[in-house]
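Complex record, two chains
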Amino acid sequence: TQLLEQSPQFLSIQEGENLTVYCNSSSVFSSLQWYRQEPGEGPVLLVTVVTGGEVKKLKRLTFQFGDARKDSSLHITAAQTGDTGLYLCAGYNAGNNRKLIWGLGTSLAVNP
Amino acid sequence: NAGVTQTPKFQVLKTGQSMTLQCAQDMNHNSMYWYRQDPGMGLRLIYYSASEGTTDKGEVPNGYNVSRLNKREFSLRLESAAPSQTSVYFCASLLQGRTPLHFGNGTRLTVT
């Protein structure tokens, strides 16, 4: 059972467009992380959200943690070709700090 | 500033052969992890070591063994490789608790 559902699975857009990636669950998470993975490399952390309703910004990327801590979103404004990659969400279930639960990822292609 | 170093980067094995994947981190992290990443399956935890001297099974441990040699090094051994073990293997480490995972750049393994 996949506890973190990411959507969409694939996304292909033109440079300059906006996009949103979603990470949803029926379970409560004590924290949620977003990673980006480029081809041939390991995932790299973008942000961690901890508090329900929290919004964090990283340049053109905006991350939001749902009020109930069951979902999160990543919004990219004016996408650039350098944003191309696999975006992964991962979270710790409330009460379990040992193992991250991973979404399957959203593969983003930003075309020039 | 190496972070997490994995060797080798690529490996081709015949069915039944054995090999050890090496991982070392220089960040004085307590916990280390081995994941495999397959298309459509996401990142799946094979084994982890919460601290030096301890190891535990993850979601998909069958066919693998691990050794936490010291605080820096965590190796993954395939005793008798099978085609189903064709995958990209990632080693990761974290300091403690819910701090971010730091990944190596992966080992691409093909078993024929």
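Note: The mean pLDDT of chain A is 94.
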